[in-house]
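Thread: zinc ion complex, take 2
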Amino acid sequence: MRIEITRPDDWHLHLRDGDAMKSVLPHSARQFARAIVMPNLDPPVTSVDSAAAYRYRILSAIPPGVAFEPLMTLYLTDDTPPDEIRRAVESGFVRGVKLYPSGVTTQSDAGVTALEKCDAALSEMEKLGMPLLAHGEVRDPGVDVFDRESVFIETVLQPLLERHPALRVALEHITTKDAVDFVLSSGENLAATITAHHLLYNRNAIFEGGLRPHRYCLPLPKREIHRAALLGAATSGNPKFMLGTDSAPHGRRLKEADRGCAGCYTAHAALEFYAEAFESVGAIDRLEAFASFNGPDFYRLPRNTAKIALEKNDWTIPKTFSFGENEILIPLRAGEVLHWKRI
Ligand code: NCD
Ligand code: ZN
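Output below.
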């Protein structure tokens, strides 16, 4: 079996920087024409100038002959000036502003402590149509880690959309039925990205046969009913749901450690993972809209015109990839056989 689809884009990607970026970028560029690049570097990308410099470093690392366009994001802080939002819109290469509630995930300490503090910047985004890309979790230690997304929706997102009804929001890497339902019941200005790993795995996967650090990511995968709801949403044909891998590489030593880092590396076979998930419910014909149409439509960018093909042909994922000079990356499904292959 073989399918041909319009070349897809990745609407949520961590490319990192320096030599580590050089190791992972070819994997994404092989499959995706464009990617929304996350700004959670150290230090974070909080200004248009630093986004321009980061974009230049990415462009310089793209393998020769490969067409790939990084779409940049700014990291929202308590004091992002409204002027910076205007500059971002004018730049033409910044396509979103990322909300990390302070402390929720990797490199989020400089994130927002209270969204009310960002009201002027958010008003400017609402006025100019600049999307807010939300890591939708609260960090309150009193909230169970598996409830952090649903509590975010109730206590942060809903009030935000009441204060800024025209703000365009992409709720990133959704993991719950609550998020699916909220997105479905909201206006056109709210969309969501869904990762391949949240379509394929529920929370049991993190503990299957022992603790599995390479399956550990944030937001955590949830119960099976939630995974099923995500798969239902992604394959429904509803344009509010779009592909965002959240491929988040960390070197092996940082993953296989006490207080190991969160993040699944999926860029090496992202499209194949999505194909597997869609096929599992007989919806491979819905993959193209999710992967190649819904994202550009939400971001008001042209759809790609080139085509790519996938075929059913078993292959084995490498056990490791190099990651910068002295590190190793363990990809999702390392050493296992996949049925779909990008050709
Ligand atoms: C991401 C990372 O490592 O940067 N980790 C993850 O588990 N997804 C951060 C994020 O998107 O939460
Ligand atoms: Zn992410």
